[in-house]
């Protein structure tokens, strides 16, 4: 039985500051699909921020060539080696190769923090439109294929053109981060914040990833109409 005196001595733990993020500067980041525009741009920005980065590709030679072009200490390896050597692995492969790539790397990605940034899109004469995978989203497909990995979703709305432009010092955008574990999403938010101008914002669990992935189709329409490289900002947080 708790007495009134006991109750006075009980203190609630202070609420965690939502913007208090871990130090991720010492983590190795692998980028699967790092020879494509989006993956290459992310690799460049993270390496420029001081992160150790390994580019992955199906062919080690292609990855090594892309890494050499980027410089900044970026390394290249085949996808399996990239996954093995990395603490965090960003999945930036084309949607049509998403499932096959992850199925082949299940063992190498076990225990890893995986960040899926793939957008399932289709294109026709009317422009881009969202596809809905059987699992609900690309991120949920990754989680189903990688049961021993910690899957999150982020970096969907970034312009590959801006990411790769060496004349641009900061990229003015927020990064929607989704996942099942706060510890994991905090790490991804911290990784996003390493890139000048960016902020990682928690945006829900993986079941909400489809809306985030689909919004890229709208941004493509914005960019075409206004000849821009639009990003997103979340206000009042």
UniProtKB/TrEMBL annotation:
GO molecular function per UniProt: coenzyme F420 binding; cupric reductase (NADH) activity; ferric-chelate reductase (NADPH) activity; NADP binding; oxidoreductase activity, acting on NAD(P)H
Residue span, Pyrroline-5-carboxylate reductase catalytic N-terminal domain: 29-120
A single cellular component GO annotation: plasma membrane
Highest taxon listed in the record's lineage: Bacteria
Gene Ontology biological process terms from the UniProt entry: copper ion import; NADPH regeneration
Keywords, alphabetical: Oxidoreductase
A Pfam family annotated for this UniProt entry: F420_oxidored
Protein name, UniProt field: NADPH-dependent F420 reductase
Organism: Streptosporangium nondiastaticum
Lineage of source species: Bacteria, Bacillati, Actinomycetota, Actinomycetes, Streptosporangiales
Encoding gene, per UniProt annotation: npdG
